[in-house]
Amino acid sequence: MHIAIISASVRVGRNSHRVALFFKRFIEENNLASVELLDLNAYQFPLFDERLRFQAKPSEKVLAFADKIKNADGVIMVTPEYNGGYPASIKNVIDLLYDEWYKKPIGLVTVSDGPFGGTQVMTSLQFSLWKIKAWVVPAMFAVPKVREAYDENGNAINKELSNKLAGIFMKEMLWCMEAKKRMEENPY
Question: Where is the signal peptide (predicted)?
């Protein structure tokens, strides 16, 4: 199994990337799957004016990103909550693709500087993913006061609690990925 982790924030001083780094390390250290971090800050995509499948000459960078999403068995989206919503950078890549998201297990990880851990963003993100027929994994991982919970390198301040919660989240994520794989092998 292969998981792509999207680190959604492109903001200077971003904090959600800390949690993306944590999940990459957690998955690797526990041999749960192969994992790849897709950092939208590194991609620096322009605002797209059309879905990929309708673009006349998509860039190699865009095609490579789409291929990484398509070939992943599951995707973890790590996003901050900005004013109750998600950043334009994640909406941009969600809307860029369509077929690549179809029935793709998507795990949502949200963070905030405040006490609610980005839970407000989950509803709008779930709705956008539902509209494009992605499969949002029921377990979610919300991180309140992210700067107090993870350092810049993705190390959890309370490692025992973070590992416990990540284990619960990943169990559900992997279950959905395996279920999709089995359904594809035996559709009826």
Answer: none
